[in-house]
């Protein structure tokens, strides 16, 4: 994720600064999802958070910085930005799973956890990125990071001989990126009303069929 500007007053080193930062992020997240990125000004989100606009500028630098912080909070990686993505606990646990079918489901479950919290903001970021070059870079960073994880997942299957014969790792990564993408979640869960568990079962079946060449025996809780 792109890291927002975070000077001393809102860097989380005091209870008061943490509370102020959290209040701004919560207010901005709600406004971005309800009103859209372009329609939400720094002044508007500052009023909603009960702070001055200068506090927002000083803490986050720009509106893009606010959105980056909102995404980091929703995705859950704010405290892990200094940790390489493949070294993060959830990713390490997934890649360490010896059973390839369960490894896929661990990735599905981790993705569902993230999208359940962050899908609305990711929709906002994706839409804004189409017209704002600065936000395009933010979106590209997010997409690149998740593809690092998916390439590692596919690579682990290929190394142990579990990847479906004839399926190139690049194609497998692309397929996984589509199945587990926020666009797919938005289409099925947000727009069509699927429950998260329904999406997880569907995604697991799709990944097992495409990457392993077989359907899973069951779907783990």
Please summarize what this structure is.
This protein is mainly α. It is 69% helix and 0% strand.
Report on this model:
It is a single chain. By secondary structure, the chain is an all-alpha fold. It folds into two domains: 8-80, Homeodomain-like (Arc Repressor Mutant, subunit A); 85-212, Tetracycline Repressor, domain 2 (Orthogonal Bundle), CATH 1.10.357. It has helices spanning 15-35, 42-49, 53-60, 63-75, 89-96, 100-129, 133-159, 169-179, 182-191, 196-212. Helix 6 crosses helix 9.
Helix percent reads 55-70%
Outline the biggest β-sheet: none
What is the 3D shape? elongated
CATH fold-level topology of the largest domain: Tetracycline Repressor, domain 2
Question: What is the top-level CATH class of the largest domain?
Answer: Mainly Alpha
Low-confidence stretches: 1-9
Keywords:
mainly alpha, 221 residues, Tetracycline Repressor, domain 2, Arc Repressor Mutant, subunit A
Could you outline the blueprint of secondary structure elements for this entry?
Layout: H1 15-35, H2 42-49, H3 53-60, H4 63-75, H5 89-96, H6 100-129, H7 133-159, H8 169-179, H9 182-191, H10 196-212
Helix pairs in contact: 1-2, 1-4, 2-3, 4-6, 5-6, 6-7, 6-9, 6-10, 7-8, 8-10
